[in-house]
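To: structure desk
From: M.T.
Subject: fold request, one chain
Message: Could you run this one when you get a chance? Sequence is below, nothing fancy, just the single chain.
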Amino acid sequence: MNLDMRELTIDTLGVLETAALLRELTAGLIAVDNFDEALTELVRIAADAVPGVLWCGFTALRAGEPAGAAASDPRLAELDDLGRGAESPAMDAIRRREMIIAADLTVEDRWAAWTDRAHRLGVRGVISAPVDVDERAIGSINLYAGRPGTLGTRHQLTAMLLAEHAGLLLAAVRDRARRAERDSERDGALLGENVVGQAVGVIMTQRGCPAPEALDVLRSAASSLDIPLREVAERLVTTVSRPRES
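Reply: Done. Structure tokens follow.
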């Protein structure tokens, strides 16, 4: 990425601030399993935590197609949305796989239509850093300043580290979402099996709980007894089906 390493000093690194940002980002995304919710949390945290950055956005592509955007301030969402035009700092970052910097948009001659919109919204500087998520999803995290010349070497380094860390966290989010979808499909198949469905119905009646919770009870029992879930279901159904002795 086009970062002048000669300018880096202990002061400009902002080690403590960056470490705090990455820690907060990890805490905010660690349990999220919805990609869009993760993007919303990502841009909120970044906008609040990076000094000199007033707004943050994320431009997403899935399978090479625009897949929405997230913005810390809804007023600026159009700057991250490729539906408003593909010529933008974010798209350049994604295409070229490198950080794009425009520290002073008042003298910027790239992305004419985008820059006009940015001016109207009060944006005077931008850094866009590419984010690699997985084989199907990529994007760009976009840091915005309200004054020309605000974004410097420190912000470039922060954007680079933020993009790398965000890519790892977002990949984990997508992986959790895929696992949750597979689990849901598997649960549906299990509930479709007669004996498991009957056992779940028994537990729902006894505990007054929904089907997913009842299925979790069955799973917990199978794990504790170290026997297959289907066998636990059969035992439960057999037990409740026995006629009570008078």
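Reply (cont.): The CA atoms of residues 8 and 139 lie 26 Å apart. Let me know if you need anything else for the meeting.
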